[in-house]
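I wish you would study the pair of lines that follows with an eye to the fold:

===
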Amino acid sequence: MKIHWPVRMIKGPVDFKPENLLPVDIPCTWRAMEALYDSGKARAIGVSNFSTKKLADLLEVARVPPAANQVECHPSWQQTNLHEFCKAKRVHLSGYSPLGSPGTKWIETQVLRNPILNMVAEKVGKTPAQVAIRWGLQMGHSVVPKSTDEARIKENFDVFDWSIAQHLFARFTELEQGRFFGGECFVHESFGHYKTVEKLWDGDV
């Protein structure tokens, strides 16, 4: 079980409208999560879309530390600082959208079209999607790819009996970095907790 975003909205089924946003009290929410953990209703509790600062702030007050932080992570948004922090604090990092969410109608991504990614794929004889997933595994985090195509699902599993050579792996540091999921729907000048995207991500943009 996890806190999906570090935001708060009015109770009930609501739309992502500014007037539905409320001020955030993460320590209070986390105490409720800890109660679920203590009761046995949740075997593990974690967070999602937490910046390095928000995760550090939570660890300062948490009695039960979060088991994982699930965030957007792929070759075009590598989250290096967050990676290092999670490793140091023994919080597992899980990467969603490891392929950049191709096919998503409301966002345009270019992860699988990146020339370096495609060059590596050609060198190792794998698809760009397989290389993107393998990159995440070699970085040391779990990956959560999504597909409705059976052939692609099987293809996504074929990433465990091979690796990207170090000289090729190093090329990923050359990729231009950019976040795809900015969380703009949680940002407003008058409503909610965050007035800017920079505040939501604590500068990790």
The beta strands are 2-3, 8-9, 21-22, 46-48, 68-72, 92-96, 142-144.
